[in-house]
Amino acid sequence: MADESTPKAPADKAAAKKAPAKAKKAKPPKLEDKPFAEFIEQHFLPAVRTALEQEEGLNDIQISFETQPINVIGVDQDAYPQVIGRWAKGSRQFNIAFLEDSITGPKIYSFATDGATPSTIEQFMGDERRITLDLMVLYVLRRLKGQKWLKGN
């Protein structure tokens, strides 16, 4: 028979008061943290296509992700991953070249009409510190609107 006058150890009291620890739910990774090519092909291209079709009324947009030299007069012939958008029976084209295999790395934008070789490149999203899918799509739309290539211009 156990002696009831023996005090319980303090560790037993502390263990009894603590509630079991709740397991933290693992957050799914952000879209922007996915591998570069997967993010571009599975998320960015469809989002740009949807924005141009539904918001801007383009019905013949062709958008692709290719690695090729930057087709601008006077630029070296190194191949870079690029998002290429064409519409109006191919008479309008924009390119976004990624100089690193990353959405946060430097990016450049070029455009051309009627199958001509682009003669100008410009920085794309250079001042942004935090890059998100929605922000990238917004910048594409803003740049095309600035070019007066979308409806309402």
From TrEMBL:
UniProt cross-references to Pfam families, sorted A to Z: DUF2996
Compositionally biased region (Basic residues): 19-28
Disordered, as annotated region: 1-32
Domain of life, source organism: Bacteria
Signal sequence coordinates: none
Name used for this protein in its record: DUF2996 domain-containing protein
Biological source species: Leptothoe kymatousa TAU-MAC 1615
